[in-house]
Structure formats: C-alpha cells, structure tokens
Amino acid sequence: MIKCISCKFATIDESASNSKWDAYECSNPKSEYHRALLNVTPNGEMLKRISWSGCPYGERKEK
Ligand code: SF4
Predict the structure, then answer these.
(1) pTM over 0.70
(2) Domains of the chain: which residue ranges?
(3) Given its phi and psi angles, is residue 35 left (phi above 0), alpha (psi -120 to 50 degrees) or beta?
(4) CA pair distance 63, 58, nearest whole angstrom
C-alpha cells in the first residue's frame, strides 16, 4: 500500500479549491475513497499537504 501523497490518483479538485488553497481528491473510481478530499481532516481543517494514509488501489506516480 502506498500513501495518497505518492499516488497518481491524488489530483487537484478545482471546484473544491479556492484562491489560497488547492484541494486534492482521490480520482480513482476503484477506491472506496473516490472523490474524497485528501487534504482535509475529519474536523474540516484544510491542509496544504495531503494527509490521508492511502488505500490498496493506490499506484505510485511516474517519476
Ligand atoms: S485513496 Fe487510494 S487511490 Fe485514492 S489517492 Fe489515496 S492511495 Fe490513491
């Protein structure tokens, strides 16, 4: 299993982003986290960095 931050399916969700913050969502339809925002905590805190741990369907980004 790899972390979302290293996963090629972690992509910017323009509609959830604002001028100061980029929202990252899981764009993998196979994942149970599909469409979830990966840099928002359960408390709704908007983080700069992706904090989610990942899922079994993650694939490493091309270098
Ligand atoms: S939830 Fe899984 S598929 Fe989605 S970005 Fe994270 S590791 Fe990748």
Answers:
(1) yes
(2) 1-52
(3) left
(4) 15
Q: Which amino acid is at 63?
A: K
Q: What's the 27 CA to ligand 1 centre distance in angstroms?
A: 8
Instruction: Kindly state if the Cβ of 9 falls inside 6 Å of ligand 1.
Output: yes
* Residue 52 alpha carbon, nearest atom of ligand 1: 6
Using CA atoms, how far apart are residues 60 and 30, in angstroms rounded to an integer? 15
Residue 13 alpha carbon to ligand 1 centre in Å: 14
Predicted pLDDT at 63:
72
pLDDT in tens, 12-63: 999 999 999 999 999 999 999 999 999 999 999 999 999 999 999 999 998 7
